[in-house]
Amino acid sequence: GTPAAKSDKTVTLTIDGQSVTVPEGTSIMRAAREAGIAVPKLCANDMVKSFGSCRLCLVEIEGKGGTPASCTTPAMDGISVNTQTDRLNTIRRGVMELYMSDHPENCAACAMGNCEMANMAETVGLKQNRYGDEGANHLAPSPIGEHGVNFKELDVSNPYFAYDPAKCIVCSLCVRACEEQQGTFALTVEGRGFESRITAGMDEPFLQSECVSCGACVQACPTGALQEKSIIEMGMPDHSAVTTCAYCGVGCSFKAE
Ligand code: FES
User: Fold this and answer.
1) How many CB atoms lie within 10 A of CB 193?
2) Is 226 touching ligand 1 by the criterion CB < 6 Å?
């Protein structure tokens, strides 16, 4: 979702036919969640201000043109919003397909079920990717910057976590989590397109930044681009199985790898 709005005034709107009343300033995405409707998203969460970069959360507002992002558009009194139309679902699949073209097919985070992006691809019904994963393998023509950091080079400088630009969709959640949750301005986005990546600025590795290793960026990352080293060391699972815990009579299932 998006952060809660603090207002005594309320607005009432309709989302997918359901009436919902929320504090003024609440995003349409959060209002939808109040109504039990999960709008697909990658670059928003409850902890940081919305940015509207991933374009997965687009919605339609009746009587208005366009497809605004529900994470950055405030709920307004009397509007009627649709979150699940054929047009929106087609746009979302197209967006997701582009993201998957910039993400390696052989990704341990996806295989371990840690990748929000892989889950979202399934949610929007993406079954094929016509563009392959060329973006993930794309190398900058030559190393850049005074330290010669290639835009696809792993950053393993931090002792606790690593950054893999091949898996990064540059949603900037990590940059915003660092700034807004931790109050540290350690990270920034550098470069454009396939050659964009997160750095500590001036193409410096993470360890050169003011990073205090709080882990807020790792927690916010929806793609496995930022991962704890201890998890990376576990590698790709050879196989996985769903089993039922025999500890009590409830019968919870869990995935073993
Ligand atoms: Fe709204 Fe990404 S969640 S644009």
Assistant:
1) 10
2) no
Measured in Å, residue 176 CA sits from the centre of ligand 1 at 14
Q: Partners of 144 in the beta sheet? A: 149
**Beta bridge pairs of residue 241:** 256
Topology (CATH) of 10-84: Ubiquitin-like (UB roll) (3.10.20)
Quick: pLDDT tens for 72-103: 999 999 999 999 999 999 999 999 998 888 77
Instruction: State which CATH number among 3.40.50.300, 3.40.395.10, 3.30.1360.120, 3.30.70.20 fits the domain covering 93-232.
Output: 3.30.70.20
| Tokens, residue 236 | 């790709």
Residue 254 CB neighbours (<10 A): 9
ipTM above 0.90, yes or no: yes
Tokens 């190398």 correspond to 139
Residue nearest to atom 4 of ligand 1 (CA): 52
Query: Two tokens at 24?
Result: 């003024």
Nearest CA-CA partner of 110 in 225, 256, 200: 225
pLDDT (tens digit per residue) in 136-165: 555 544 444 444 455 667 888 888 999 988
Cα separation, 123 vs 168, in Å, equals 20
Query: Which amino acid is it at 52?
Result: G
Mutate to test the pocket of ligand 1, among 42, 81, 98 (most ligand atoms within 8 A of CB): 42
Mutate to test the pocket of ligand 1, among 49, 71, 96, 170 (most ligand atoms within 8 A of CB): 71
